[in-house]
Each structure stands twice: as structure tokens, then as C-alpha cells.
Amino acid sequence: MRQIKQNIYSVGAIDFDARLFDKLIPLPDGTSYNSYLIKGSEKTALLDTVDPTKTNVLLGNLEKLGIEKIDYVIAHHGEQDHSGSLPDILKRFPNAKLVTNAKCKDILANLLEIKDDRFVTIEDGGQLSLGDKTLQFVFLPWVHWPETLGTYLKEDKILFSCDFFGSHFAASSLFVEDESAVYEPAKRYYAEIMMPFRRQINSNLEKLKNFQIEIIAPSHGPVYKKPKFIMDAYKDWSSDAVKNEVILAYVSMHGSTAKMAEYFTAALIERGIGVKQFELSAVDIGKLAMAMVDAATIVIGSPTVLAAAHPLAAYAAFLANALRPKTKFASIIGSFGWGGKMVEQLASMIPNLKAEILEPVLSKGEPKENDFAALDRLADEILAKHKELGIIK
Length: 393
Ligand code: FEO
Known about the structure:
This protein has helices at 55-64, 80-83, 86-92, 102-112, 179-194, 198-208, 227-238, 256-270, 285-292, 311-323, 342-348, 369-389; strands at residues 2-5, 8-10, 13-15, 20-21, 25-26, 31-33, 36-39, 44-47, 72-74, 97-100, 119-121, 127-129, 134-139, 149-153, 158-162, 215-218, 243-250, 274-279, 295-305, 308-309, 329-336, 356-357, 361-364. Helix 5 (179-194) crosses helix 9, helix 6 packs antiparallel against helix 7 and helix 8 (256-270) packs across helix 12. 34% of the residues lie in helices and 25% in strands. The structure holds MU-OXO-diiron. The site of MU-OXO-diiron (FEO) has 8 residues, from helix 2.
């Protein structure tokens, strides 16, 4: 339990040991499930709960604060890492009303079987008085679910932003102390869940211009006392701007595709193009997703297995398609022993990428002189395309 300002507490849980989120996303820096308690002169509100694995931490923090009565529990988001402890909290505080919007109410009613009479449904811009403190609700759809909302505490100019601006970053300090340390976890978080909704992120950033925000308190990671840092980062990530970078995500079985990858990376570097190379059998998909936030071009490298793409290359293509990065160009390199449809299969897996597909390079067996020449041709083409975009200094 830690204090943000007088009568405003962080009562959630820090999970230093968490290493995988949603059985998918690596958490190299752990995470936190932030829950906030606001004591007004007349009413007390709890903003979000915690992951159900940490319910005891939340209940313990409330007990330490001597909280005997909660009037409102605000649910910003239906996902269980924030809502999962709601049933226990509503049981512990039987008179508390559960405040949320209609979409979130529907999700919570279905996920957690919360009865209708516990809910108070609010509208975008609606206000709730705690006496000397006023909560104003701000709908923030698609950060990253459709129902998500935030709360603006008017008197203290604090935005409780839910997943928006969050980071999977377990830190003992309540506030961001070192912006450079939180930048990567915040970008990783954006890449993994926000990036597919870049347009809506932009709209929500625009909407927040109407608020004077001095503190951003997200539902994961430390609290921002200088909101400009994270708001500027989001503006950059969600903009249309791309960088002079190529992501090369590849896997190789017997070394042919690896040789092509090595040659191709060197060819790009020689041309002054940044390269982020990922070997897919040991990849941190968070790092791969982060690279996708900015790179102008993605190239997938695969051998041909059973006449098709290597499953790990297919996984990378599937992930890129799901994350919908703003990538402008894409291509495929790889090899085959006797035949197959690897290129066609991978190309068909990325329809969500609004990227121009550059001519792939495919080697029969070991890459030979003509294959290396083709890789040089692809590197030249990428250079020309990046120049056309004006991203080469
Ligand atoms: Fe942190 Fe979408 O839950």
C-alpha cells in the first residue's frame, strides 16, 4: 500500500515473479496489477481490483488502511487481471456498488456472474461525487478491449488510465523514477496489445487533450508524474511514421536459410539500413513485437518443411498479421529442397499488413551466387523504397 496524494492510495499487487502473461507474452520485468483507493469526504471508491492470484494482497492492503466501507468499485475493464478479484471484493464489501459502462457490465456479468443489482451504469463524461473529490469517467475504447474506460479525478488532475499507458514492469517505487527504464516495458506493452488498435489509440490521445493531466496512474507499472513522457511516446508509436529499419525474422533447419539471413543482414547494413534480426526458435516475441512498432519493412525467412513454411515462420507471420503494424513493405526469403508452396503460404497469412510485397528470394538447396545476387537485388529495392519514403537521412 502506497500513497499517491492525500487520501489517494495504490493498493494493488506487484508481481516481481510473473514471467508469462495470457500464457503468451513474456514478462522479463514482471508486472503489477494496480488498484487505487480514493477516500472522499463522504464516499470511498476503489478503482479496479487485481488478478485473482493476488486477491489476498489487495484485501490485505485495504485492511492495513483500516477500510471498513467501500461505496463504489469502479471497473475500468473486464479483463480478469483487473476484474478477477471483483467477486471477493463485492463479498467483503456487500454494500459497494459496481460502477462501469454498459459494455463492461455485460462482460463482467458473463465472466464473473455478478448480479444485476450490484451495478451502476455510467455514460462517457458522467461524474460521481465522493464529497470533496469528483470522479469523471472517460471512455477509452480499444485500449485494447472495446469497453475500456478511465477515470479522471478532477480536483487532483489524476487520470486513472487502466491499460492505456501501462507497462509490464514490477517496480518497488510507486512513481516512475527513471524514464529510460520504463520506456522499453511500456513500448513492449503497447506493441503486444495496443498496436492493432493504433487508430483508436490516436483518437483516445486526442480526446485526452481536453483534460489537464498532472499524473497518469495506469493499471500496470509505475505511476507517471510527468505524463508528457508517456503521452509523447504513444504519439510517436501510434503515428504513421516508420523508421529506416528491416525486421528479419527467420528460422533455418540445415543452414541454407541461415546463410541467406546472414548475407542479407550484411547487405542491408552496408546500405545504411537498420536491421533487427530474430532467430525464431529462441525469440522473445515481445522484442519482435516491439521491433514491429517502428520498422518500415518486415522480411520473414523460412525453409520449406513438408512442402510448406516452417511452423515457426508461420507463427511469426500470424503474429505480425494479428498485431497489424504500420509496416510499409514485406518480403520472404528462404530455401527448399525439392519443392513446395512456402512463399505463397506465408504471403497469404499477412492480409492485415497494408504492406507492399517485394519480390521474394528463394534458393534451391544451398544458396549460390545467383541467390546472393537476388538478395542484393532485394536489399537494393528496400533501399530505394525507404528513400522514396524519405526515411533515410
Ligand atoms: Fe491489463 Fe487488458 O488487462
